[in-house]
Design a protein that fits this description.
Layout (H helix, E strand, L loop, with lengths): L9 H6 L20 H11 L1 H53 L5 H6 L4 H81 L27 E2 L17 E4 L5 E3 L4 E7 L6 E7 L3 E11 L6 E2 L4 E5 L10 E6 L7 E2 L1 H6 L6
Antiparallel strand pairs: 1-2, 2-9, 3-8, 4-5, 4-7, 5-6, 6-8, 6-9, 9-10
Helix pairs in contact: 2-5, 3-5
Length: about 350
């Protein structure tokens, strides 16, 4: 089942975060405020909004230029047709002159006129013809000038569009490489910690500046839903006890509601995990993490980052395993989807 909350531009959002961090190396430490591979990956997510705006601005500009180039091409085609019509008009005028005078130009016919009235009529006819020819030639010259100018404008627009497309393609390749390296570093350290059964301590993350006004939120902001509550499979001894959210390594994991951290542990089937206690006797679990941002006993608010997703423990790929329980331990899980829905969170 695919979540309707997932933006179409998730990949550019995550990838372009590195555009503004190309020269920002991460610390090699494992603990402390803003240090370690986890903090490095989170900084990419924190800068994603700025980088995405730049990407989107560039994409919109490219679309504007594409539309401008298309309009210029359409104008060129209209002007080409206009020039063809003008040239046809000139041809008709010339043919009419010679047909009316038996092949003689209108000026020659005037000189051979037998009476003054015929001469005056001829003069007026010559003036009208000259004006018509002059106007038509002028229109033709102006149309050809506009055609040349618009052709140059259209060619420049297409060149700029090609340049922009090439820049974005190169940027995307560089971002993909750097982000993959940062995520691999974070996951590698997380697996070592989980294997040792020893958590290195919380890496305090710089929280988003804007605080959420809602009391309850989804545990991750963007996601695909994977294994659901109660589903079966060879990976579990019994039925699946939570809802899985497929997200890349390093995705910030949020507290679904206000509460207190009652457990932070590493190792075992759940890998690195955090358990929160909420009002009303409920607990939420966040498992298979790549890092934690809280310590046992901390109080958290709805939407506060408490860790980062990973693939530690009994996991076949990066995701967040989320549970709702009536005790802090396994064996008391509820279906988290309707539980969240009752609190205004649709996933």
């Amino acid at each position: 089942m695919r979540s309707s909350r997932r933006p179409t531009l998730l990949v550019p959002v995550l990838l372009c975060a590195l555009a503004v961090l190309a020269a920002r190396p991460g610390s090699d430490g494992d603990a402390g405020p803003g240090s370690g591979a986890g903090a490095e990956v989170v900084r990419l997510y924190q800068d994603a909004a700025t980088a995405t705006r730049r990407y989107e601005d560039g994409r919109r500009e490219a679309e504007i230029r594409r539309a401008e180039a298309q309009r210029a091409e359409e104008l060129l085609e209209r002007q080409r047709r206009e020039i063809v019509v003008i040239n046809e008009d000139l041809g008709r005028i010339a043919r009419a002159q010679y047909r009316g005078g038996g092949g003689l130009p209108l000026t020659a016919r005037m000189l051979l006129a037998d009476d003054p009235d015929q001469l005056m009529r001829g003069q007026r006819a010559v003036a009208r013809v000259n004006r018509t020819v002059g106007n038509t030639l002028g229109r033709s010259r102006r149309a050809e000038a506009r055609l040349a100018a618009n052709r140059a404008k259209a060619e420049a627009a297409w060149r700029e569009l090609d340049r922009r497309t090439t820049e974005l393609a190169v940027l995307k390749q560089d971002i993909e490489r750097k982000l993959a390296a940062a995520r691999s570093k974070l996951q590698g350290r997380a697996e070592a910690s989980a294997a040792a059964g020893s958590c290195p301590g919380a890496v305090r993350l710089d929280q988003p500046a804007a605080r959420l006004s809602r009391d309850w939120v989804a545990p991750v902001e963007t996601y695909d839903l994977s294994a659901s509550f109660g589903s079966g499979g060879t990976r579990w001894a019994n039925r699946h006890t939570g809802q899985d959210f497929a997200v890349p390594v390093g995705t910030p994991v949020r507290a679904v509601g206000a509460g207190r951290v009652v457990k932070v542990s590493c190792g075992g089937a759940f890998g690195i995990q955090v358990v929160l206690q909420h009002a009303g006797g409920y607990y939420t679990q966040y498992a298979h993490l790549a890092g934690v941002a809280v310590d046992q006993g901390d109080r958290v608010e709805a939407g506060e980052w408490i860790g980062q997703s990973g693939s530690t423990g009994n996991s076949t790929g990066p995701h967040l395993h989320f549970e709702v329980r009536v005790t802090p331990e396994t064996g008391s899980a509820l279906n988290p989807v309707p539980w969240l829905a009752q609190r205004g969170v649709t996933i």
